[in-house]
Amino acid sequence: MSKSTLHPIWVVGSINTDMVVKVNSLPHSGQTVLGGEFFMNAGGKGANQAVAAARLGGQVSLLGCLGCDVFGDAAVARLENEKVDCSFVTRSENLPSGVALISVDSTGENQISVAPGANQSVSEQQVDLAFSSISSGSLLLLQLEIPLATVGHTIDLARANKCSVILDPAPAQS
Predict the structure, then answer these.
(1) pLDDT single digits (tens) 152-161
(2) pLDDT tens per residue, range 42-91
(3) Is 81 left (phi over 0), alpha (psi -120 to 50) or beta?
(4) In whole angstroms, what is the distance from residue 33 CA to residue 1 CA?
(5) pTM for the complete prediction?
(6) Contact yes or no for 108/84 (Cβ under 8 A)
(7) Interatomic CA distance for residues 18 and 69, integer angstroms
């Protein structure tokens, strides 16, 4: 099947910058450990879904929110380089872009702290605006790094518009 005959893929979700430090062992409460290698990666479960689908040949649009900062600028550039349409990624003047602080030990175990920033402002209104461009039969990918109300609203609109939904229920929420 050619790319032009595929149904569009829409990802509604998070966009983060991951800041990773490799350590010999993970710190205990109140402990500081010296790390080794540091690197930054593109992250956010939504952005990761969008990039994976685009790399597999999908026609992908991402709906999310970033801050008006260097992390947001870099995220949009990376996503567009991966052929992800960022027309529905908004920028917040009031909130920074999301970041994840990750420590990874020598066995691969990790500790992750996420500051969601602008991801928490992905709104039902933003989804409503996007649905004027989302065609029936589209596939929507979601996860839980944006407000749960927005996730639920997106699923309701997807059902009403005969779209398929795949939900990654992470990070786990009550």
Answers:
(1) 999 999 999 9
(2) 999 999 999 999 999 999 999 999 999 999 999 999 999 999 999 999 99
(3) alpha
(4) 51
(5) 0.90
(6) no
(7) 15
- Which residue type sits at 121? S
Structure tokens at 3: 């790319």
One-letter amino acid at 13 equals: G
* C-beta of residue 9 within 8 angstroms of C-beta of residue 58: yes
Q: What is the DSSP string of the chain?
A: --GGGSPPEEEE---EEEEEEEESSPPPTT----EEEEEEEEE-HHHHHHHHHHHTT--EEEEEEEESSHHHHHHHHHHHHTT-EEEEEEEESSSPPEEEEEEE-TTS-EEEEEE-GGGGG--HHHHHHHTTTPPTT-EEEEESSS-HHHHHHHHHHHHHTT-EEEEE--S---
**Which amino acid, one-letter code, is at 102?**
I
List the one residue out of 156, 134, 154, 158 whose CA is nearest residue 146.
Answer: 154
Give the chain's radius of gyration (CA, Å).
17
Q: Which amino acid is at 5?
A: T
Question: Which is nearest to 26 in space by CA: 107, 98, 136?
Answer: 107
